[in-house]
Amino acid sequence: MPRSERPLEADGSPLTQFAEALRALRQQVGGPPYRELARRAGYSAATLSDAAGGRRLPSLDVTLAFVGACDGDGAEWERRWHELAATLNAVPISHDGDTTESPYAGLAAFGTDDADRFFGRERLSDDLLARLRKDRFITVFGASGSGKSSLLRAGVAARLTGPVVLLTPGEHPLERCAAQLPDVPAGSLDADPRNLQLVLRQALTDFPDGTELVLVVDQFEEVFTLCRDADERGRFIAALAAASEVCRVVVGVRADFYAHCAGYQELVESAHVTVGPMTPDELRRAIVQPAAAVGCKVENALLAHLVATVHGSAGVLPLLSHALLETWRRRQGTTLTLAAFQASGGIDGALAKTAETVYDELDSRQRVIARNLFRRLAAPGDGTEDTKRRIGVDELDDDADLLVVLDRLTAARLLVRDHDGVEITHEALIRAWPRLLEWLNSDRDGLRAHRQLTEAARQWEALDRDQSLLFRGTRLALTRDAVGEAELNEGEQAFLAASTGAQDAEEALARKRTRRLRQLVALLTAVVVLLGVAVFVAVDAQRTAVRERNVAVSRKAIQDAELLRADDSLLAEQVSLAAYRLVSSREAANGLLSAFASNSRLPNGLADNPLPEPWTPPPTSAPPPTEGQPPAPPLLRPEDILYQVRSEYAVVAVSPDLMRMATASDVVRLWNGVCQSAKCELGSIDTKADRLALQPGNRVLAISIGQSTRLWDISDPAKPKWLKEFMHDAQWAAFSTDGRIVATGGENSPVALWSMENPAEPRRLGFLPLSTGDNGAAFGPGTLVATTSDDGTLSLYDVQNPGRAQSVATATRFPGSYRLPVFSADGGKVAAASGDRSATVWSINEHRQLEEVGDLQSRADLTALSFPSGELLRGHGRGTETAWALDIEKVARYICDRDGGELRQWDRFFPGVPRFSYC
């Protein structure tokens, strides 16, 4: 009779519970002997008995074979096995009292102290050492994860008998190199690359003759990824080449930086060594020998599984080493078992965990890029499993975030990069990472359509963008519906756009042919009528072409006139008038008024006269009148012009009757506005000012500075009296035309209206609704108020009832701001200055809406505006004033009376336009 099964220890551990469940499953099918189960499962009776023994976790394959022999649910037991493996993984098997250091390095590279546990690369290490005896400068290329760093450190540097300097370049490779050498001052290598050669010669003086130093530069790709200074990078490479004359130089660089290295002749001329994948025998040694060195062994099943899994895969050596390290921590006595490897998560589990960790560290845009990149790196199976897909560098756009994602995924060994392209490290990642599976399963039809689009775009580019390869019709429509714009690279987007454009062009051509056919039929039935229509269309087309030509020539002439204003203002006026007559656009009108204004600036006052000076008309430049013809009167009459103020007075206020003027510099001064002697100053107030405002009637002066405004009684200018201070963002003040209301406002407060019945105690009447008058306000005749603001808005309000003011109209410019509003005396126009040396004028129509009259340019910043008359606007600046006549026909008559309407150099300014008289 067969012996009875050994009872399990009742310790309640998860491993014991798992074994109990296996035994219970066997009893559910009648408790067959293990020999019978062995026949059904294909494993020995001892292996199956041990699986239910509770001493260690059986492998997943053995577990599923046991369950299958007992007619159990394989999917359910696979889930339970993974849960138990995760539990055992979270609590590693204890080896109390065992101080043996792990023979495996994990994800880290083997160092120079790890030569005793570095196996599998003996042949390549010997070859590289032999090359070092023959070649002085060697560049070692290898994919990420191929073991370059371990080879250079544990396989080469550790076996050299002479002095070795080992470094990584970092952000400043010359500084890093100096830091690794004894007694080398910082910065000494920057002056001349050959200084490194001198330093190395000096370092060898303490060694016997014939000793050669070896300089090993690991992770050489950092000179391209971290060092941003191209000059410093070139000096470092030149320094290495110079150093190879006195020592041996070995640099290790990732294969995907091969093209970068090809840009430097020193690296091209160096000897090249490539680190390829390990052979099966080398893998066996790398797996078994480290364990044997510490008296342990690797289970044959684990060894076979690892070799079969890793062989032929690029860049997985660090992941293999990490999985072996975790298996070592869970070893059974001195044996590394397949079950312990699977309990640790294995390579698949490590990949999934690493992938999820890297993904969580990306920002939102980089996560989208990672998703699209992995979808591009996978080929959906058609009845088979999904496989990895290598993509070339031509599929990758030049995007900073994409480079970050590639670097992080490559550093985590999830991707392998070289100078040709990118691919997933191992297809196990597709199976083991749930998030990637979800990305691939979410839209497989779209993924397949994307792959077809990628291939079509590549062929299209390869055949010089042959139009016959573009998608059309149903295929184009299905592709556009299936793929998302975010997933497409620049080449695919260009292909799709070209396909759409080609189809649109073909459809347009088809429609055009249909129209022509219809036109031909109509022509046969009504030849005479259609001939007339054809003539009309031709004439209209010619007129359109002439009109478009004239618009273009007029705009160019306006620009030319603007450049002429400083050197030849009279010619600028002629060109501007001709441009306006050619095309009477608002742009041309603005150019004409601005050109005329630039020739009508007031002359500066006498430099030694500190007082305002009345304007005197400049000598006329009009031609002498012919006999019997009266001379042309000046367009701008002296009585229409305000006073000129010297540049030291940046803040000015003039009363409406011109009887008073206030200026501000270090103090506020009051002047007799019409005085023409040297004794014009009437009084002063010892304060600075940002803005000034005079009340009509010359009784009150408002002085604004900072965030407050003060009212002063100036009935006796010689003895001004302080009346009242407005606080809380009262950065300016403006009086109504009858002086009975004052408005105040600022950047952070609405415009307030105050009664001036008692100037010593102004009474607040109300606020302007939704006002943004942070740059000032002005009252017009009647009940209108205009405000301006930094956001480029001029607003009109009706304040007939100050307590319930109504919004009337607004005008907005972008970009820019409006300030210094002013009304004409009749209230028919309003103007505002802007920060770009210009002033905009609007007329106010019968519906109280704003209609732009002109956007006029000045040569200087504007500190005030005034309307001497309804057809004249003056802009006041520091030391200059500009006069704009607003009646464009008067301006035209003045220019024609002065110059006779003949423009020299017509073809220079109006090429292709027949000469015409612009007067």
Automatic annotation (TrEMBL):
Q: Which residues cross the membrane?
A: 302-325, 520-539
Ranges annotated as biased composition (Pro residues): 611-636
Keywords in UniProt for this one?
Answer: Membrane, Repeat, Transmembrane, Transmembrane helix, WD repeat
List the molecular function annotations (GO) for this entry. DNA binding
Region annotated Disordered, chain positions: 606-636
- Domain HTH cro/C1-type positions: 21-77
Recorded superkingdom: Bacteria
Q: What is this protein called?
A: Helix-turn-helix domain-containing protein
The scientific name of the source species is: Lentzea tibetensis
